[in-house]
Amino acid sequence: MSLALDPAAQDLLFREARTANTFTDEPVTEEQVQAIYDLVKYGPTAFNQSPLRITLVRSAEARERLVRHMAEGNQAKTAAAPLVAILSADNEFHEELPALFPHFPQAKDMFFSERAAREGAAGLNAALQAAYFIIGVRAAGLAAGPMTGLDFEGVRKEFLDDDHTPLMVVNIGRPGPDAWFPRSPRLAYEDVVTTV
Questions:
Q1: Left, alpha or beta for 87 (phi > 0: left; psi -120 to 50: alpha)?
Q2: d(CA 9, CA 165)
Q3: In the predicted model, is pLDDT for residue 1 greater than 70?
Q4: Across the chain, which distance is largest between two alpha carbons, in Å?
Q5: Distance (Å, rounded) from C-alpha 37 to C-alpha 17?
Q6: From residue 87, how far is each of 16, 100, 108, 132, 183 by CA, in Å?
Q7: How far apart are CA 85 and CA 101, in angstroms?
Q8: What average pLDDT does this structure show over 173-186?
Q9: Confidence band, pLDDT 50/70/90 cuts, at residue 85
Q10: Neighbour order of strands in the sheet with 52-57
């Protein structure tokens, strides 16, 4: 059985998708980021809670502040990427639920009145949206370099607040020279899928 998505799109989004480690100096425009968001915002989340928040790091001063919080191996590529995004989970996402989930506005208080419940839901669903975002970057013909090698608490204090939990930093741009490490192996279908 074949997939509905044509093979070129399958390759762009998945088979040829790699974590980029170098980028050209071609800028990533606000229009490109808007187009990415306008596509990926439709990816489903539980209760349509949409907790992902994106902080674009564009200024040289902000980039310098961010690089200090990156693991040593991620500093140079973060400093050089045309655009860097901090992806975080908004733990107060429930305030938007009456508008985002209008057919059941009671969900805000019924399921998410406790902070611990919100943090768990926000973390899971924002991570799902982060994956959509990375695929959206690829759909825009750009390369993504998602990283979790960073001082999360430092990034939170530097760029966010107590209501936002950083998930990852993503370098974005056109791939540069020697952008890719060799592809690592993947698990086979039979090693992953169990039928009961």
A1: beta
A2: 32
A3: no
A4: 54
A5: 19
A6: 23, 20, 23, 12, 25
A7: 27
A8: 93
A9: very high
A10: 52-57, 83-90, 164-173, 143-147
